[in-house]
UniProtKB/TrEMBL annotation:
Keywords: Membrane, Transmembrane, Transmembrane helix
Organism field: Niabella yanshanensis
Name of this chain's protein: Uncharacterized protein
Regions crossing the membrane: 7-26, 55-71, 78-98, 118-139, 151-172, 192-210
Amino acid sequence: MKLSKNILYFIPLALLLIADLVLIVLDIRNFYQPFPNPDLYDIETNDSYAEDFQNLKWIIMMMALAIIAVLRQEKKYFTWILVILFLFLEDVFRIHQSLGHFFYNMFGMTTGQRGSKIMELFAAAFLGFIFMAPVFEAYKKGDALFRKHSKAIFILLGLFLFFAIVIDQAHRLAMIQYNWKYNVVFGLLEDGGELIAESLLTGYLIFVALQQKKVEIK
């Protein structure tokens, strides 16, 4: 009975990962034999089904964190909601690009595209520090359970950022950009990795929220 209940908590994660795999397979199919509206199935484009699914997962994460905060009566989880909210807005509006261009012009840089990309990375790091600072402060003052949850979120979020930043920067290298095979592989690795990492984080937060609900019912 206990095993069956625990399995139920992994059903949302399984559904998320299945949806990710379907989107990745459709992207590969779209590459070799394009659909009538190919951009919808291209996981690298901003107006695709994959992008919409990613945005939905950010919203689910915020809802799960809010449920955990309310049921545990612990306001520190709202610091994580701010981080997820920022990532959601970043996904939609590409805030770091606009801020990077602002820094580029403010510092009077003239190094072209390379300088612009450096400023975008600087802007991303700057925004990350602003939104993560409250989390670090909450972590220092939080109880053991909050720290446990935060460590797991740190790890899974780090995995997402590895694909979103490290693999993305590798994907931008000239030797990859101008080799169509490398370009396709790194594009799929970057965006497919983001999809799966985000699902792992979403599934974990749903799992924690359901566990809190179970405790509340008891």
